[in-house]
Amino acid sequence: MRSIYTTLVLLALFTFSNAQNWAEMMQRPDANFYQVQAEFNQYWQNKDINEKGKGYKAFKRWEHFVERRCYPSGDLSQLNLTAKNYQEWLENNSSNIYQAANNQGKFSNSSAIMASSTWTAIGPMGPISGTAGGQLLKSGRINFVSISPTNSNVLFVGAPCGGLWKSTNGGTNWTTNTDNLPITGFGDHAFDPTNTNVMYASTGDSDTGDSNCTGVYKSTDGGNTWILTSLTFPITSGVHIRRLIVNPTNPLIVMAVGTMGIRRSTDGGTTWTSISTTNTYDIEFKPGDANTVYAAGSTFRRSTDGGVTWTTITGVPASGTSNRLAIAVTPANANFVYVLASNSANNGFLGFTINKFWSFI
């Protein structure tokens, strides 16, 4: 299922003036679906729909998702009420949900609604049959695999819209208890390294827009229950949280990065401070030195005070010209920083560099 506002991250690419009307209307809850659709169809009349970067495919996904959800009025403001209405329905019908599932033998413990599965990759590994909005559906994605720092048998994986799943036996069996959250997509997960029962998870697809972000959740009981922290966003905001990290020496310090920039908490997620509003893809602590933090978006930045202030590091190849950088570090040699750069021209691979040399290899 495609996100209601899957195209928000692409709107910055819509530099052509004639398309701005429908592209901007898609973001406004006071707009009408049928007006947006008419503007779009008028713009694309007699144009090449295969032209990349103009938003045709992204709009069609949005159209496919939205049209049936705002019929017959076309009132886009109704979309913002879906999660709220669903949560209210769950609260008012929880006993009926449990009874129905119990009658089918799905679970025997009323304290939680859990789904369990044993899975093995059996394919298909490429495109699968079916279409959505005129586009061929693809096989699923996993946004992250998170391994407990104290027990390698405990794993969490998050799907763009398929929930947060936990394994306690190294991946043989999996359970999820996130089906009834307002958003079932997850972008990243981070353990408190000093107490692995404490963990954080960000909602929404971290890479594209298969589900929307509502914020960061926290668990203090190993993932059995989740509470939304104060880092929240409207479901129509188009925010993508891409990484979560926890300070290894002071676990009350948590950082989240994404399209909203860098947010930092010093009290375990109770409150958050906006450190930067620059679109950020990745963030890492220097191994053995929690005061040194690296962050990357289209530029490479470094903090030497635990993420409070940041300096752009010059001399990094593609910094400022690539639209996406990714970072890796290693405790084997804490002075090494590896940077992967994308090619802005085609969103493919541009190069790989190490900070000892700062040249592509």
Could you explain the architecture of this structure?
This protein has 361 residues and is an alpha+beta fold. Helix content is 14%, strand content 28%. The strands form seven sheets. A four-stranded antiparallel sheet has the order 8-9-10-11, with no helix packed on it. A hairpin with a 7-residue loop joins strand 10 (215-219) and strand 11. The longest helix has 22 residues, at 82-103. The two termini are 39 Å apart.
List keywords for this structure.
361 residues; globular; single chain; 4 helices; four-stranded antiparallel β-sheet; 14% helix; alpha+beta
Proportion of strand residues: 25-35%
Number of helices: 4
In total, the number of strands is: 22
Radius of gyration: 22 Å
Q: What is the mean pLDDT?
A: 81
Overall outline: globular
Spans of 5+ residues with little confidence (pLDDT < 50)? 1-19, 104-115
Which percent range fits the helix content?
10-25%
Strand order of the largest sheet: 8-9-10-11
Q: Tell me the major beta sheet.
A: 4 strands, antiparallel
Order of helices and strands: HHHHEEEEEEEEEEEEEEEEEEEEEE
What gap, in angstroms, lies between the N and C termini? 39 Å
Structural class: alpha+beta
Give a short synopsis of this structure.
With about 350 residues, the chain is an alpha+beta fold. Helix content is about 15%, strand content about 30%.
Topology diagram in text:
Elements: H1 20-25, H2 33-44, H3 56-67, H4 82-103, E1 115-117, E2 131-132, E3 135-136, E4 144-147, E5 155-158, E6 164-167, E7 174-176, E8 186-191, E9 199-203, E10 215-219, E11 227-232, E12 241-246, E13 254-258, E14 261-265, E15 273-276, E16 282-286, E17 289-296, E18 300-303, E19 311-312, E20 325-329, E21 337-342, E22 349-354
Antiparallel strand pairs: 1-7, 2-3, 4-5, 5-6, 8-9, 9-10, 10-11, 12-13, 13-14, 14-15, 16-17, 17-18, 18-19, 20-21, 21-22
